[in-house]
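Structure ticket #2291
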Amino acid sequence: MSTSLLLDPVLMAPTWGAILMCLSASLVGVISFVRQRSLVGEALSHATYPGVILGAMVGSAFSLVGAFVCAMLGLLAMHALQKRLRLSSDAALCAILTAFLGFGVLLASRLQFTRPKLYAQVQVFLYGQSATMVEKDLIIYGILAALTLLFVIVLFHQIKIVNFDRDFASSCGINAQVIDVLMLTLLCFAVVIGLKSVGVVLMSGMLVAPAIAARRLTHKFSTMLVLAAVIGMSSGLFGTLIAVKTASGLPTGPVIVLLASSICLLAMLFSPQQGLCVRYVRIMRFRRACKMENDLKLLWKMGESSFAELYERSDRRSIALWLSLLRLARQGFAVRYKKSFALSVDGQRKASRIVRLHRLWEVYLTSQLGIGADKVHRSAEEMEHILTPELELCLTKLLRNPKKDPHAQPIPAGEVWQ
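Resolution: structure written out below.
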């Protein structure tokens, strides 16, 4: 079905135009995102509006030219506000965004009464209308997308160095200012490319959404560029497909941006390393493991005991404690008898190591940091669950293998449980 869109004489230009736009916006968006300049794209997209109108007044072919010129003027104005008038970057962005957009709205309102047909054509650039794209537009978009891709490929190493370590870039002889100018020029190109597809208002979404989604999936800059490009192009293709195949005739630009935003949201929720839901699951597993280790300590201190005795000494709810004890028995750390629970051999080893880490940390806090013995228990309760065997060995050497904790309780031997 998507193949028919790519080859259909009527739909080919809007579909390929959306794909090329999303490719350019995604690549440039990643660079802006890494440099923490995502809002610059928002300001420039709004700054193009008066240029579109002025260009259309000259001739319909000059709309994109006017948009690019106004975007560059907005960029220069932002730089001047920050350097000459000492405005902060966010204040300069807001000033340019509102000033240029206000001027554009003023021109549009005047155009509405003097040249209504031209006004209707100009409004296409405000919210986007992919259906108006023709093969001539596709050629322009293809050239601009090729320039963006060529820039990223040829200057990849320079871009990476400038983005992450400008001092090192200077020591390597890389002119960071030239790279910055080229990147900002490409940002203007990317904004101009997206005007007919998603429009002035929504263009910033296509710059940011694929970059955020890719960042949640990888920590590597090159992989982030590839992932953002794939996410962006997929959003362009399937967004156009959804818009075309929907009976109600949804607008293509908003559908593309919504699809990219949905992918971004899914990445933020479910990415393997940084996803919010995945992190929540890891946190819950860690908390459950900590509580089970606390139950192991309780069995270690009390020995074989009935559930009622364990519950009396525990701070957990009865059902939670019961399930935890059953889980420990299933994992082989505890033995369940008719009316009681006790530690297995493996459970004895694991519990004694937890107690050892707890008491070693208490000794460290009192002897090395001078903290009172009555104030170290809570910190030790937290650290006993995260101290690694390597840290245990370091603590043992530093403290000269102590035999008792600050409360004169014996510290179990240093056998590391496997």
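Closing remark: The chain has two domains: 2-274, 278-343.
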